[in-house]
Amino acid sequence: MDYKKTFFFSLFFLCVTIMSSQDNKYEIIGKVIDVNNNTSIEGANIFIINLKKNLVVHKTKSDSAGNFQISLDKGNYNISIGHVDYEVTLMPIDFSKFKNNSLNLNDIFLEPIKINELDEVVIVSKDFRIENRNNKRIYHIGNTLKDVAGSMSNLLSYIPSVSVDIDGTVQLRGKEPIVQINGRNSNLSKSEALQMLPSDMIKRIEVITRPSVREGETEPIINIITDRKRRGTIGGVNFAIGLPSTIKGGLHLALNKEKINGYGLYGINNQNNIPSSKEESIRTVDNNVETVETETNDNNTSSTNQFGELQYEYVPNDKSELAGNVSVFNSNNMLSIKGERNMFSENFEQIDQLNDTENKLFSISTETEFEHQFNSEKEQLKIELEYEFESRKNSEMFLESSLSDGDLNTNSFDRLRSNEIELKTRYDWTLNNEGYFSLGYRFDLSTLNQEQFFSSDVNNISAENNIDFTQTDNTIYADYSNVYKKIYYNIGFRFVNTERKLIDEDTNESSKKSFSNLLPQINLEYEYGDSNEISLNYYSLLRQPRLNYLNSFNTSVDLQRIRVGNSELKPQSSQTIELELFNEFENSSISTTFSTNFVKDIIQNVSVFDTENNITVTRPENIGKSTTFGIDFSYSLNSPKWLNTIVKLNGRYGNISGGTIDDDFYRLNSSITNIVRLKSYKLELSWFFSPKNKINFQTFQSSNQYFKLGLSRRVLKNRGNLVLSVLDPFNSARIIQNIDGQNFDYRSVIRPNQRRVFLSLFWRFSVKSRFRNTDKQVKEKGILQ
C-alpha cells in the first residue's frame, strides 16, 4: 500500500507540474512589414534572447505573409526581429503587457539596410552558419574556422563543394571558378594570391555553383566578402614565415565615409628552393624489342608573387551608384631540375639532364560599374565595363649529357600578350514583391599574340612562330525569376555567337571558325522548415578552347615528351541536371548534390607514341561525347561543443564514346577536417584522400593522401591571431599517373612541395574594432550582441 500511495502521489504531482508549466507558457505574435512600401517580409528572423546568459533560447521565421508566432517561458528577455536585407529591431519583453499569457506586437516595421550608415555593429556567428538565398549559398564563417585556417586558401578548403589541392589550386565541383572580392572579378583567382592573404579579413563566402543568366557569367563563382563596411577606418596586417624558406605578408585597409567607400588589399609571397621530385618511366615494344626508359628528377622552385587590389564605391544619391576596382598580379617563378635518364634495351645508356625554367606573369584588370534606379523604383539600368591585360613570358633551357652524344642543348622562349574587353548592359524590372525580369547584352573581345622560338642541337633544329588570335562573343540574354508560394523559380537563356580567328603571321595561314549556340537554364527551389531546401536545376554551358589548345607549335624542350595544339578544335558543350538537398539542424548541416552531365565534343588530351622517332606526342582532340553521374556531399557537425567536424565527398562516374573509344572513367575525392577548441587554443587535424581514379579513357591515377595540422591562439589583447600550420607533415602526398597507350605504357610519380611549416601573425589595427571572443560555449550564436 505504501508503494501504491507513493506511486499515485508521484503521478498526481507530475500531472500538476505539467499542467502548471503549460499555464506558464507565454506566446508572442506579430507581423513584419517593410516600412517603405508596407509589404510583408518573409523569412525574417525572430530571436528570443536570454539577457542573463546572453543566449538565443527560442527562434523562428516569419511566413509568406510576414506573420510569426513564438512561445517562451517567463524570464528576462529581449526579442530581436531582423532580416539580412533589413535593419534589426531589438526590444525588451514586458510580461505585464501580456493578456491571457499572450502578447500581440501587431505590425513591426523594418527599414532596409543602408550599408554606408552602419557603425560598430559586431555580429557573433556560429562557427559555420549557412544561409540560402535564391540560387546562392552563403557561408557565415565564425572565428574558430578563420583563426585556425590562417590563409584564404585554407579557409576555402572548409567550404562544401570547394576543393583546394596541396598546391593551393581551387576548384568548385571539379571546375575552375571565378573568384571575386566583394562582388567584383579579381586577380585573386590566381592560387598564389589566395595563399598570401589572411583568413581573418573574411566576413562571409558566397558560392554560386550555377550562375543565373542575369549574373552574366558561365563559370561557377566564389565571392569573398571582406570585413569592410563599418564606418571610419578599419584594417589589418599579416606576416608569415615558413620552412622551407618562405616569407609572406599582407595588408588590407577600408575607409568608409558617407558617400564614398574605399578598400585596398596587398599581399607578397617570397619562396626559395622549395623541393619536389618526379619519376617517369615508359615501356615500348617495337619489332619484339622491349625498351624501358626512366627519368628521375629533383626539382627546386623559387618565386616572388605580389597581389594588389583597390576598390571604390561612390553613392551620390539614393538612386545611383558608381563602383569599380583595379587589380594587379605579378609573379616571377624559377624552376631548376636536375635528373638523369636511363635507357634499358639491347644496351644500357645513362644521360644526365639539367633543366632551368623562368616564368614571368603580369596581369592588370579594371572594372567599372554604374547602376541607376529610376523614379518608379521598379526599374534599374546597370552597365559594366571590364578590361584585362596579361603578359606571360616563359624561357627554358634543357641540357643533356651522355657518353655517346656528348652535350645536347635545347632552348625555348614563349611570350603571350592578351587584351580582353567585356561590356555588359542590363535592364531590370521588378514586377511585384518577388518577380524580377532582366534583359541584357554582353560583348566580349579577346585578342592574343603569341611569339615563340625553339632551337636544339639535335639535327640543328631552329624554328619561330608568331600567332595572332582573336575571339569575339556577342551574347543576348533574358532572365525571369519569381516566387510561387514557397517555390522560387528562375528561367533564362543565352544566345551566343562566337567568331574565332587564328592567324600564323610567318606562313599567312589562317583558321576561322564560327559558332552559334542557344543556352537555356531553369532553376527551381523549395524551402521547407526553418533551414531546409530542395532544388532542381538544368543548365547548358559552352567551354571554348584556349589558345594553348589551338596552337600546334611545339616548345617542349624535352624532345621525348612533345605537346602540341589543335586549331580544328570545336567548343565543348554540356547540359547538366542537378538535384540539391540541404538540411540544417541545431548542431549540424548536410548538403548533397546529385548531378547528370551530358557533354558533346568533349576535349581531352590524347597521347600517342611514335615508334619511328621514339617520342610521345600529346594533342587535344574532340574525342566524342560523355555521360557523367556525380555526387557532392558535405556534412558539418558541431558536437560536442568543443569539436567541429567537416566531412566532404566528391565523386564522378561516366562513359566516353566516340570513334574507336568506348570506355568508363571515375573519380573520387574525400576529406575530413576536425577543429578542436582547447580553452585558449584551436587545433586543426585534416586528412585528404583520393582512391584510385580513372581520369579518362587512357589515364589512371593511383590513390593519394596527405594531412594538414594547425594550431592557433588569440594574442595582443585579442586584436591578433597567431597560427602555426603544417602541410603534409609525413611527406605522404603522391600524384601517380599511368597512361595505357596502344603501343606504350607510361608512369609518372610526382611528389609535390614536401612538408611545409608556416607561422603567421595577423593583427587588426582598427582602433574601434577587435576580435570578438566566441570561445564561450553557448547553445546558439548569430544575433546582435
Which descriptors would you attach to this protein?
22-stranded antiparallel barrel, Beta-barrel_TonB_sf, cell outer membrane, globular, CarboxyPept-like_regulatory, 785 residues, six-stranded mixed beta sheet, receptor, mainly beta, Maltoporin, Chain A, 42 strands
Give the helices and strands, then pairings.
Layout: H1 2-23, E1 26-34, E2 45-50, E3 55-61, E4 67-72, E5 77-83, E6 86-92, E7 102-110, E8 128-132, E9 137-141, H2 143-149, H3 152-156, E10 162-164, E11 170-172, E12 178-181, E13 184-185, H4 191-196, E14 202-208, E15 221-226, E16 232-243, E17 246-256, E18 260-286, E19 289-314, E20 320-344, E21 348-373, E22 379-402, E23 406-430, E24 436-456, E25 461-484, E26 487-504, E27 509-528, E28 532-543, H5 547-550, E29 561-563, E30 572-584, E31 588-610, E32 615-637, E33 643-658, E34 661-678, E35 681-690, E36 693-694, E37 699-701, E38 704-715, E39 720-727, E40 735-740, E41 744-751, E42 756-764
Parallel strand pairs: 1-7, 12-15, 29-32
Antiparallel strand pairs: 1-4, 2-3, 2-5, 5-6, 8-9, 9-14, 10-11, 12-13, 14-15, 16-17, 16-42, 17-18, 18-19, 18-41, 19-20, 20-21, 21-22, 22-23, 23-24, 24-25, 25-26, 26-27, 27-28, 28-30, 30-31, 31-32, 32-33, 33-34, 34-35, 35-38, 36-37, 37-40, 38-39, 39-42, 40-41
Main location: membrane
InterPro entries: Beta-barrel_TonB_sf, CarboxyPept-like_regulatory, OMP_b-brl_3
Protein name: TonB-dependent receptor family protein
